[in-house]
Amino acid sequence: MTTQLQSAEQLSATTLLRFATAGSVDDGKSTLVGRLLHDSKSILTDQLEAVEQASLNRGQEAPDLALLTDGLRAEREQGITIDVAYRYFATTRRRFILADTPGHVQYTRNMVTGASTAELAVVLVDARNGVVEQTRRHAAVAALLRVPHVVLAVNKMDLVDYAEPVFAAIAEEFTAYAASLGVPEITAIPISALAGDNVVEPSAHMDWYGGPTVLEHLETVPVSHDLTACHARFPVQYVIRPQSAEHPDYRGYAGQIAAGVFRVGESVSVLPSGRTTTITGIDALGESVDIAWAPQSVTIRLADDIDISRGDLIAPVDDAPPVTQDVEATVCHVADQPLSVGQRVLLKHTTRTVKAIVKDIPSRLTLDDLSQHPAPGQLVANDIGRVVVRTAEPLALDAYADSRRTGSFLLIDPADGTTLSAGMAGASFAAVAEAVAPAADDDAEWDF
Question: 0.85 exceeded by the pTM?
Fold first, then answer.
């Protein structure tokens, strides 16, 4: 019993890292994930036995570790990853939530999903093929989503005789490309996921490499979950008014604190109306508290009876986000149907959903040289481009560079609820300036 308690205490004391894997088809993402789980002893005996049996049934002598993550029948039959596979594992130094994302171009939307909450992205490259278009696409998505750490895993080094010049050339090309996107930290590691070289254990075939293994880097890379240092933001999810004999006048605003800290007595603004008031009480887990911070779910009580509903945002008076109806952003288009100028959509931002129209698509990103293709007219599946959207109601929107939570939004098809695009408000890449300005003329056909 004592040992179990010690293990629980050790686990709770470790930090959590969310990371995603990405790369082109057959670069070995699922094999890398399987090798991580296998060599770190993070899989159960019956799971390993099932993989061994499935591998034998397919005529393979050694267990195919990719089957540990490729769970869909279509994935196993085709030997590819289709959907995002989430895996949870832990070592004595850190806990991990891993998103294994697909490599096919048509599934790039899934990479956006997997990397949207990641602090680190592992981009795999086949040492025989080097950096290809899909590699650049995944690097661009990681940069757009402001993933702070990127690992370049040059896989299948065993198929190029563990040659250092091959690794060095690929690492140099990718690092230059990712740095031009504004990726703040890039770490290149030569590996063989199939043989286990430099995944968990150091490779005996690459004595010219003196850096960390993949797992060592994952265990030691600095991560910060301190949302309390960010701008304080509280999207209202639900208005609580019991109107009971016990609580006849109770009015509270429930939701999850997106970022920052809120205190009783603090002056706040309610957006988009701009009305100001004071926090008189904060209820958390059935008790009144004087202070609350992200990501706690709480109910906030205010001094004044203000018209507040779901989707409104509470923020400090001296640190409130701007309110606008003209949203300039970069979007990753994820739907099969195109996004066109003049198209009517729904824009979902935190807990608020409003009607909107696509006013302009100034440019589409060309991944080869990061140039902007001007005025494409529409974006098709997996395109990355700049858009200007006019909303029917004002939104309190941060720049995505300041807040991944309150600077992001979705564009949705109002007809069937399909997600069209994932948007990041403000400038696109950290180090790439956009020179595209929104059109100044108004659209006479707008009905709001």
Answer: no
